[in-house]
Please model this.
Amino acid sequence: TWVTNTSPVDAYRGAGRPEATYLLERLVSRCAWEMNLGQDEIRKRNFITSFPYQTPVALQYDTGDFHACMDKARVLAEVDGYAARKAATEAKGKLRGMGYSSYIEACGIAPSNIAGALGARAGLFECGEIRVHPTGSVTVFTGSHSHGQGHETTFAQVVAARLGIPVENVDVVHGDTGRVPFGMGTYGSRSISVGGAAIMKALDKIETKAKKIAAHLMEASDADIEFANGEFTVKGTDKKIPFGQVALTAYVPHNYPLDKLEPGLNETAFYDPTNFTFPGGTYICEVEIDKETGEVKVDRFTAVDDFGTIINPMIVEGQVHGGLVQGIGQALLENCVYDNETGQLLTGSFMDYAMPRAGDFPQFKLDTVCTPCTHNPLGTKGCGEAGAIGSPPAVINAVLDALAPLGVKDFDMPASSSRVWEAMQAAAKP
Model:
């Protein structure tokens, strides 16, 4: 029996990838300094450049362009002007440092056979149902529950674009076990890559059946029917009918191939991914440190990510912002502290536990590179956790770069004022 006074822990944004990335990216920058190489140079020398790339641990990276992420991040971060900014900071009596982090993560969890081999007791597929109504409007049922990621917008956009209907004609239903057929949920940046892929497979079935209905209405072979921009056309002719007419016909089957097709237009599909997805990117952070107080200010932060195909840029930007704030907050402020003698939690309220606030951050500079995922129908990779994965090592590498002239070679999170001040004082002792 184990008895503890410490609080229980569970998966946090990134769930293991922030820890692994922190370890690796701290190590890479340390190697760069020991070898008198730039933090960017050592990474560029070791980037994977040929895809697909078989890793030593069974997984295969299908696509990526790490050099493009690095190059774009350097331009956006105005790295060429860093020396001038550093000189200006030193003229104010402060320290300035730059830190890099180039991450890759496994998302789109997960192929069920791999999950089973790792001990999971469930399949990690996802389900999607598309219900077309007689009016031509659509209801989407998904097992990927939204808790702020904007599924209602993104999934609706995917369906509207595929069927050529207004996005306001699409209703998304999630989180209702009485209405949704089945679902494994939202985690591991899997919603669009797994849940969205299930929706796309259901849409494939909808289009196949709708083409047969359209072929009957236009007295053509369904092999000659094409569908684009909300219209069914017969190849080589000017015959066409809108999606809404086909939807109505499916439910009012007066002129309908009842001997071949059931009425209605409602399809369900399950999607079990064949591989993980692999978002990646490069983050560059610049910090200023006050020599007198140890206060760390994040002066500039640049993030360039490869999320594959992006459905809604604004939602992606919001996800990255949220992840960056969480990751930088962990690097600079957040810490559970217990009294060494009594075991009492000293940071038991938000009066004592330092949470990041808007004033703690600069205006982030964000951009993306797109190498579409090769094994799901949308080409997406997922974006929800990236910011929290790549940012902590970028911040701490920047802090160490700033403290290097004082002889500080190692420092761990959080980089609070008191801990940075103590590190500087310790380095100054003979």
